[in-house]
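re: ur question from yesterday

yeah so i grabbed the chain u mentioned. its 226 aa long if i counted rite. heres the sequnce exactly as i have it in my notes:
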Amino acid sequence: MKITFLGHASLLLEIGQYKVLVDPFITANEKAAGKVDIEDLNPDYILVTHAHQDHILDLEAIGKRADSVIVSNYEIAMHYQAKGFKVHPMNHGGSWNFDFGKVKYTNAIHTSSFPDGTYGGQPGGFIISTDDKQVYIAGDTALTTDMKLIPLTHQLDLAILPIGDNFTMGIEDAVIAADFVSCDTVLGYHYDTFGYIEIDHTQAQEAFVEAGKKLHLLPIGESLEV
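ran it thru and got these structure tokens back, copy pasting raw so excuse formatting
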């Protein structure tokens, strides 16, 4: 599995022949300018953790062109189905076997509304399981003891956690979250995009090293293999 960081909370997962895009917010992200072109993105699926603008901004432009399947909670899925998109609705605790792997929809503590203020259902995260890898995408969330349930059924190879603080958990809580999900390899996201969530990279790396863990902070457009 190849995971490319597209900036903010946007990710592209390449799993075999399939491409899975997560929370596309690119064209309004100044830090992604010149590094990511949405015209180059042709995902088979788009996973959406919640309805905030900084997670769905480019969904319609990309999804329409690529004829992607939108996977999210029931309310978000129905919102896009009404606009003519192909969708697969899910809800917390549920799983589904897609052609690229099994997806479980997990709890997250956050809010969720569309840019016009309409209800976007409850926020969530995803665990993606393939034949040999398991990756947790936490979405925007606070630290929650629900994370302790994950290692009861999954052995994660990578945890993708928000680390920017203010709107989500910060570095200190992310270290604890890595303990809760029993995963020592973390990809940080949802940081540095704007002033509220800027972090000290050195301090963040040191906090994870002190806890015996590895924190990846990928430059926008760069990838890691899981």
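noticed a couple things. The helical segments are 53-56, 59-66, 74-81, 171-180, 201-210. also The mean pLDDT is 98.
anyway ttyl
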